[in-house]
Amino acid sequence: MIPAWVQQSFHDCVGISGCNGCLDPNHPSNRGLKETIAQSKALYERLNPKISLADFMALQGTEAAKAGATAAGTTAVM
Known about the structure:
This protein is mainly α and 78 residues long. Helix content is 58%, strand content 0%. It contains 3 helices and no strands. Helix 1 packs across helix 3 (53-71). It is globular and about 35 Å long. The two termini are 19 Å apart.
């Protein structure tokens, strides 16, 4: 899940509109993220955090990047 969460966060936040939590899983540039987007939205709804879906997805990406760096044996992340 680490690469998928980083990719999802990037795809949500890059561009003119910035982070908005509105990823279209059927858009060609989001190919392969359909399951990740669905799982993220389900987790968001289950946890019912006091942050927006966009913030939740950005946080997922940040924490996934940190976890990936830790797994790789480095701390050179954000």
